[in-house]
Design goal:
By secondary structure, the chain is an alpha+beta fold. Helix content is about 45%, strand content about 15%. A four-stranded antiparallel sheet has the order 1-4-10-9, with no helix packed on it. A four-stranded mixed sheet has the order 2-3-11-8, covered by helices on one side. Bound molecules: S-adenosylmethionine. S-adenosylmethionine binds next to β3, α6 and β8. GO terms for molecular function: protein-lysine N-methyltransferase activity.
């Protein structure tokens, strides 16, 4: 009997200890789930605050912020005809730098970006504002300097690595000029903004991925900058300045592209033509199809693009094949690796981007080299919206 009693006592103690261990873990879990919900709420709230903010400014708006294929974006709230206004934002609501009023300094070394980042940083530091509250973290570009060696090596392109180094040096130079106070071009900047290099870098990366340009004006346009990119032939729209009859009120309008947009579909903006290296360095993504992609052959310095891919001399075609065969993996291997990575739960987004870059480059070289492929894997990659389709039924040897 007494043995049984002490067994009960023992079980009781073990249960109490387990309960004590369990309660904090419940607390930790609830506080974690609260944080997740809170972050989600904050994102939802800041989006709706931004919507209210632009509506109060008297903006025209036929779209709303929504969850899309590329994360957050703009969704049409009514059917829009080609060329129809989707959104109109007063110029006074933008954060802008007029390069023509700041001397030649602004154009040298793209200093306008740092000047605009400085303005954005002041807003970020001066507390809550619907626009800055709605900004996402900067995109995962290699210029931020946080890609692993494995991801950088996966690019398999030494020229691109040099370009990334240059972009890193450019960011550091801008930071030195503005934050370290060696050269303060904007006399309005507060002393606080000069002492936060990390925040400045974040602002600079946001500026590099969100600015639109009208002549000499470089602008961050609330709400309009939520539009994700699609090229014009994929339905991307465009923007333009519009003036009231008295010319006193100036707005910036987002217009539907030549396919129009159906209610409920995503509204895209054509960000313009860029090489894949530029997309990665400034925007941290690669467009599904990039007709402006370009590979310069190392020996001849011949530029290969999707528009000259079928007009090349045999000499250049042969050089494409040599370059293609230099890699350790074939195009098919790379596509297979990408599919494998995409199926994983935990993904290295930097490595994935590097692999996409490599696939895109090899696809162009392969098409230019004129090598034949019957690979079903290769065709399926293109059908699923991989890279450029022109001449894509070729494969490296
Ligand atoms: C001007 S912002 C567009 C709005 C952004 N999605 C947001 O949540 O605020 C540009 C950034 O959006 C993302 N983005 C835009 N278009 C994209 C696309 N076609 N594919 C993938 N990401 C895209 C990239 O991170 C890019 O740097």
């Amino acid at each position: 009997m007494s043995g049984l009693g002490s067994l009960y006592q023992y079980v009781g103690i073990v249960l109490s200890v387990l309960l004590l261990l369990w309660i904090p873990s419940i607390n930790a879990w609830t506080s974690y789930s609260h944080q997740v919900v809170a972050r989600h709420d904050l994102r939802e709230t800041s989006a709706s605050c931004l919507q209210d903010f632009v509506d109060q400014l008297g903006s025209v708006r036929h779209c709303e912020i929504g969850s899309t294929k590329y994360g957050r974006g703009l969704v049409a709230t009514k059917d829009l005809e080609p060329g129809e206004t989707i959104l109109r934002i007063p110029l006074s609501a933008t954060i802008q730098i007029d390069a023509s009023q700041n001397g030649d300094d602004m154009k040298l070394d793209d200093s306008w970006a740092a000047a605009l980042a400085n303005k954005l940083m002041e807003r970020l530091q001066s507390g809550s504002c619907p626009y800055v509250d709605s900004l996402p973290p900067p995109p995962p570009t290699p210029a931020r300097g946080d890609w692993s060696t494995q991801a950088l090596e996966a690019l398999e392109d030494s020229d691109f690595l040099q370009e990334i180094e240059q972009a890193i040096r450019w960011r550091n130079r801008q930071c030195e000029r503005y934050v370290m106070g060696r050269l303060c071009l904007d006399e309005d900047s507060s002393s606080a903004t000069q002492k936060n290099p990390q925040l400045f870098m974040e602002a600079l990366d946001l500026v590099s991925s969100r600015t639109i340009r009208c002549g000499d004006k470089f602008m961050l346009v609330p709400f309009l900058d939520m539009a994700n990119h699609a090229s014009q032939d994929q339905g991307g729209g465009y923007y333009q300045l519009e003036y009231s009859p008295s010319l006193q009120d100036v707005t910036i309008a987002l217009k539907a592209g030549n396919r129009g947009v159906q209610a409920g579909n995503e509204v895209f903006l054509d960000y313009g033509d860029r090489r894949n290296e530029e997309w990665l360095i400034y925007y941290g993504f690669l467009p599904d199809r990039n007709t402006a992609e370009c590979v310069t052959l190392p020996e001849s310095q011949q530029r290969i693009t999707w528009s000259n891919v079928h007009m090349l001399d045999d000499l250049y075609r042969a050089e494409c094949r040599v370059l293609l065969n230099k890699g350790d993996t074939t195009l098919t291997d790379d596509i297979r690796s990408l599919k494998h990575i995409e199926a994983l739960e935990e993904r290295d987004s930097h490595f994935e981007l590097a692999l996409k870059y490599r696939i895109s480059r090899k696809s162009l070289l392969s098409a230019a080299g004129g090598t034949k492929s019957s690979s079903a894997l290769f065709s399926s990659f293109f059908e699923e919206g991989g890279q450029n389709v022109a001449g894509s039924s070729t494969e490296q040897e």
